[in-house]
């Protein structure tokens, strides 16, 4: 397994500095969510796209994934597909083999209503796959939002008939009470990318506080120990979400110790 980091960790840095950090911290690659501190969207201009291409090309840094904000339960499917094509173009230009998608929200109420929403989302993934493949890009939906449960995501992917895979985020299935072994049983060979982070549940509330790896309760080490047995050989990405949580430590202080810990935890599997 190869180790990368998401540049959500460093919203204050230029894109070039984010690329350089891969070498500085001894990583294998970069997961891209931000460009100069802003979320990458289909509106990213040609000049910025070219800057990104040059920075990655000059450094020879590998890109693990390009993270989008696209939601597969979107009611505007034409807009989804149009935006997906632009993001796939950016991914191709930057050498990203994978686009991360969100599942979004599912309707409350009776099971048939929920199941119909899953089937519509799966149909959108089926339509999206050839759009992405035209640019050499694969699709993966994250365990997030109403798809935080691996069981829910597995149901979507079964309906999508191989059109997309899964991004296994360590935190969200844990919030849903699922152990890593249960997540791997549900998603198995569909896992195309892995996010690791740590958090603690706030007392008396269903809220969580992100912390440095090893300081919380998310079973990241257990997860990493089980991935090889499930046949996973992809990227492990440190997702330290300082962009959304500015109270977290700056990347100059937070990245090195977490990367060292991940290297230690991955050692038995190498």
Topology of helices and strands:
Layout: E1 2-6, H1 15-24, E2 29-32, E3 34-35, E4 38-39, H2 46-59, E5 62-71, H3 77-94, E6 98-102, H4 111-133, E7 138-142, H5 150-160, E8 165-169, H6 171-175, H7 180-187, E9 191-196, E10 198-201, E11 208-211, H8 220-226, E12 235-238, H9 251-266
Parallel strand pairs: 1-2, 1-12, 2-5, 5-6, 6-7, 7-8, 8-9, 9-12
Antiparallel strand pairs: 3-4, 10-11
Helix pairs in contact: 1-2, 3-4, 4-5, 5-7
Could you characterize the architecture of this molecule?
The structure is a single chain. Helix content is 41%, strand content 21%. The chain has 270 residues and is an alpha/beta fold. The protein has a single domain, classed as Divalent-metal-dependent TIM barrel enzymes (TIM Barrel). The strands form 3 sheets. The chain has an 8-stranded parallel β-barrel with strand order 1-2-5-6-7-8-9-12, surrounded by 6 helices.
Q: Strand content of the residues, in percent?
A: 15-25%
What is the total tally of β strands?
12
Using only C-alpha atoms, the radius of gyration works out to 18 Å
Can you give the mean pLDDT?
A: 96
Helix content: 40-55%
Succession of helices and strands: EHEEEHEHEHEHEHHEEEHEH
Total discrete domains:
1
User: Architecture, CATH level 2?
Assistant: Alpha-Beta Barrel
CATH topology: TIM Barrel
Counting helices, strands and paired strands, the structural category is alpha/beta
